[in-house]
């Protein structure tokens, strides 16, 4: 064959600068594209062999990647179907260039390149991101004359005959001066490790096979043991703690999706540990930024999702608009809910033990996804200060009789810091009220979501009001004080209580004389803002506390009877400080003085 030269028939002189600039922002993915092509070519050959259309020896099919620093080349060699000169013209010149042409035409009218990137079959041409010349030396499985194609990234190419004895394709990249970083073995092995770790055909680099061609998500769950799942988790996250449990995804309608999602253990002071689920398309790694594919609240999960229905060259806006991606998203939510329900039904004790971690997902899910609440309401658990867990129905049943207020609302009490709120919890216990523990950063939002879902139910922190007002049953005790005396008490406490509001109440005589409470509404709003990461609008405002004075306590009567004004003031201060102390709010110089006074008085 005479060397054939040609011009690729598109008008634009040089398309590559544009492709280089816009098609892929990440130059390293040239290797992903070329290795994927080599895998495709090898799998096509295996398929032909299995259909009886190729009866030669398959032989060793390992794909080899090598770097020659001196020659400044990177070579990707496969033993796949190969191409003859006609194939090259058809698949490399025409098809890819028609893709390029289409790309350019769209690019002209669409300044937002994000919208069009990733929709064109231009994988092979990503080679020109790093190479100034690309050479293809290939021999078809049909045992035809081997061919060599070379192109310098302009629209000119050349095809000649070449010597090649074995079947398959070598892609030789003559790396450009600005891309010499890719002539480094570490760099190449890092890229392969990232993108090719689970490719289905063996890939060899530097004398070693770098991939696991049969990862567990490609197998049937019935062929796998718990140990297999745990071992795969270690392979993905060598430094991770053992996962709590996992879900094997296997969907073939209305889209194709396989994968394994793991529930990790979550530490109490949880941090949103995103970017852990890895997205693959036919075992080719695409990204670990799964924002649009995995519902937000499940981005704390770990594992792998593989879907051929997700385009390889993904861009954010493209993913968001993709109908399949939306379906995948809701499918994953459903699967996760089903799995949690299954564990809850089959192993309630185990479920309760895992609740501290699992609860974070569930709560986040409820806060961020209405549909998830409907799926999860059966297994949402509430934990009380005795460490017992209840479902929403069970809890309502438990507290309904004793904790319904005069407006017919069931009031669920909670503490976010069991130690600090001990005085209030003790007071609630005296009434045989139950107190829940709500100590995760998400709880303010979680409680809000529950209030909007549950009928006639409200949540109040145990220190948000006086014990009688927390669950106001309308049974007010008579006050032992006259109106004048009440006024006097109020005045005395106003002197010591700064900006706080004095709230005089007729509580049982054995309740504390003073307690400092933080009204629920304002406090919860602040808590919610804090976790949402919005600037704390109210942060600058001192949060008004209420000072509840128990008019029926004997010390208040004593205070009124104290004739010496100084002694009266001192007792008022002491009582107020005791209230602060019980809330853990007495600190610094005030605390020191309190201790000194107390010591002096002993
Ligand atoms: N190593 C190879 N062996 C045999 N044929 C190949 C090889 N590499 C590329 N080809 C042929 O060239 C065509 C174009 O490759 P290119 O990567 O540009 O697009 P694609 O693989 O079809 O799509 P994608 O954009 O998903 O990569 C392939 O479809 C294939 O027919």
Identify every distinct bound molecule in the structure, by name, code or SMILES: adenosine-5'-triphosphate
Helical content (DSSP H or I, runs of 4+):
25-40%
Average pLDDT for all residues: 86
The secondary structure category is alpha+beta
Gap from first CA to last CA: 112 Å
Shape descriptor reads elongated
Q: Compute the CA-based radius of gyration.
A: 35 Å
How many helices? The count is: 18
Sheet with most strands: 9 strands, mixed
Write a structural description.
This protein starts with a strand and ends with a helix. A hairpin with a 5-residue loop joins strand 15 (381-383) and strand 16 (389-391). The strands form five sheets. A nine-stranded mixed sheet has the order 1-6-5-4-7-3-2-8-9, covered by helices on one side. By secondary structure, it is an alpha+beta fold. The longest helix has 25 residues, at 85-109. The model is unreliable at 9-13 and 110-120 (pLDDT under 50). Helix content is 39%, strand content 18%. The chain has helices spanning 16-22, 29-50, 85-109, 185-195, 226-236, 316-321, 323-346, 348-368, 370-376, 392-399, 422-430, 443-453, 467-470, 483-496, 520-532, 554-561, 565-582, 588-601; strands at residues 4-7, 63-68, 73-78, 131-139, 147-151, 156-161, 168-175, 203-205, 208-209, 245-251, 257-263, 277-281, 284-287, 302-306, 381-383, 389-391, 410-415, 435-437, 457-461, 501-505, 514-517, 546-550. Helix 7 runs antiparallel to helix 8 (348-368). The protein binds adenosine-5'-triphosphate. It comes from Emticicia aquatica. Keywords: ATP-binding, Chaperone, Nucleotide-binding. Belongs to the heat shock protein 90 family. This is Chaperone protein HtpG.
